[in-house]
What does this fold into?
Amino acid sequence: MFVAHFEMTARRLTLGALALIAVGTGALGTVFATAAEPPPTVLKTEHFDRDPGWEEHHNRIVPAKLPVVTQDFGYGPTRHASLEPGEIGGRITRTTKPAWYAAELAPATLDDPLSASGSFAMTAAQPGAGVFFGWFNARQPGGSGRPIGSLGLHFDFEAKGGRLAVRLITGTNQSCGTFITPYLPGKYRTTPLKLDGTRYDWTLNYDPTAAAGAGEFTFALASENHPPIVVDATLPAASQAEERARFPTTKTFRVPLPAGYKQQLTKFDRFGVMNMMKAGGTASIFFGNLQLGGKPIDLRADPGWTAVGNHAKYEDREVTGAHNFGYSPDTNHAGGRPGEIGGDLWRSGDYGYYADRVGPLSLDRKLEARGRVTMLAGGPDADMMLGWFSGRDNPATKEASPLEAGNFIGVAVGGPTRVGHYFAPSLTTAKGSRGKVDSTPLLRPGVNYEWSFVYDPAAAGGLGAITVRLGDETVTLALKPGQKAEGARLDRFGLFTSQAGGQMVRIYLDDVSYSTAAR
It folds into this structure.
């Protein structure tokens, strides 16, 4: 801090001396040219061993009403899904805090064959409920939406029925899978699975040697009581095709793993049921007639599986849009001594930020930043931004995220679920034009990285370019012709949220250096 202050002071004195000399010699034009130059910058460093006093805006949102979460599931002597008394299940609530009832396994990876089968039945559900059943890893940070390092059945509910997908989520949070029931995002989202106790029989097998060695999982679903589908001829053609391609018309599904997925650090050490990890509703669902690795699981008595939070009741603060990020004095997720910045940033709700005042800066000046970062959890459809942007005193972006409204340059954390979360160079000019690259370094959950950012307005033949480094990987984004001239008002540096609608990123940073205007 002392060095940064000294550099700022020295530069102010130098500029002042130049102006006085120019006035003294009558070189009035020189005074005007100096005044018109963009202000010089210095590199400021924060180690966050004390509160930096950064500006806060909608970054600590307490819900007006805290919902009460009730988890009440595990082993029971009932027979909703089972042919004989004894099954797993109960009332499961979707919330960011993980809860499960599961068998402890010898660790398995995607190099090992896996097989399981059984039945499930559902008796009630609220909108927005979500449940997982299958193989997973016990190290779950919470807030990831879906369990990281898992392979199994993903249930999603509305008041009148349920949907089902089967997915693999690797240890690096990359995802592949298929919908078993019809689903066209944003267009056709039926819930054909019945909530009346209808029994569904399923099998899930994974073969690491299939698909030319890439690995493949196969899922089958059947039910004696589910009615056959009659495709509505008034539906759009795409919806009709989706109906014919899914259950109950189609009963067997194959999903080859994308290249490289087997190497994505996936380890399974549990098999059982858990909640999906985003605030939502409650479903009553049961699993019976279970086999694992071709061997029946005896459920005539409680199998004594490991239990985490499956019988609990508490008020839930982590609801959609309830940002909770800023200075964190007692944590050190990003490494080093306690004291860092970060927390939970939702891609929903009010636009919020936590940032230092650094301006005025523009796209005509070189900008640099570096530090350490760890992402603990990143749900599907979850993003956050780090960099320079325009604060709320700018009417154009007062209550709108600069990623969408304009005036931002920095790093965007996010990406499609099949990939994970990019650590990507990003730009939105004052006129709203944007820049991005197709492939960037990936943030693996729970891994500590060193990172850096450099924007050079003279690079790429004068167009300007951004270079981002994460660990040992680097990517460069060249600005498009005319983007630098569109400009950007940059007077803050820090973290801010997107408003596109989605889930949460839990991320922390420490030992951050960044360009700020000399004062």
About this structure: The CA atoms of residues 178 and 243 lie 14 Å apart. The chain has three domains: 1-37, 38-63+320-517, 68-297. The chain has a mean pLDDT of 90. Residues 2-24 form the longest helix (23 residues).
